[in-house]
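Appendix B. Extra example for self-study. Work through it before the problem class; the solution is given directly after the inputs so you can check yourself.
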Amino acid sequence: MIKALRIDHRLMHGQVAFSWAHYLGVDRIIIIDDKVANDDFQKMVLNMAKPAGIKLSIFSVDVANDNMEKINQLNDSIFIIFGCAENASRFILSNPQFSELNLGGIAKKDGSRKYSEVVYLTDSEEEDLRKVEKLGVKLCMQQLPTSTKENLTLI
Amino acid sequence: MGNVKIPCIILLTHGRWGDEIIKSTEMITGPMENIYAFSLSPEMDIKTYTDSIKEVLKHSEADAILITDLYCSTTTNVALSLSKDFDINIITGLNMYLLIQIDKMRRKYNLSMKDELKWIIEENRSKCDLLYLK
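Solution. Structure tokens for the complete assembly:
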């Protein structure tokens, strides 16, 4: 069962691997990111860095979409991490079964607007997330399970 | 006599404890040279963090030793990514005893750097332990 969705440009790092994985009680982390899925070296790095006792899958958006039936049937407790808003948006629009998306960390770039200490959105990222919100998916920002959960609306 | 640079030590930590552990360790070892700390802050982007470490590695790649603070973490992920372009040694689990031993070893070592580090790491395991007074 898919427990949570998170956008985090740092993918699998301390906050995800320890705090969130423990809080959500996950068995499997699925990273959905086009760039990393096509980078064998980065896949190796992520596999080396994964926490003990947790399974890791890394898919591009297209491959994840193709495998949704299987993923939904897994007994594992699953945590999905996207590296960017565009990938998250494309995946959620193809699989309208989710109610919430956590913006855990989106890096500052040229032309991006600050939404929190760790979330900065460009015009196109705002547009990607607006599409998600229009589907009825709640957007929120919460770095750690112990942080205050802030709601975000772009509509 | 030539001025041979000892292999550099690079600490990658969340927040500034890399800087602080150097100061604390120097209370015991005296001043350490060719040692750098890179502090990762929450709003920092990975490319900037990685590029700043690359600047040091460009001049000090030979037998460079990177010590990160936590496995499954951005600091370790960055170190592993750097190993694609640089021939470096990466250890996770920074602690003071480890730093003291590595600093001592790099001034004079006989085996390959990797073998020396394996030995130090093995010895380090027993230094994080429950203590009892008998």
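Self-check: Chain A touches chain B at residues 9-14, 17-18, 41-42, 44-46, 48-51, 107-108, 117-118, 143 (CB under 8 Å). If your reasoning did not lead you there, revisit section 3.
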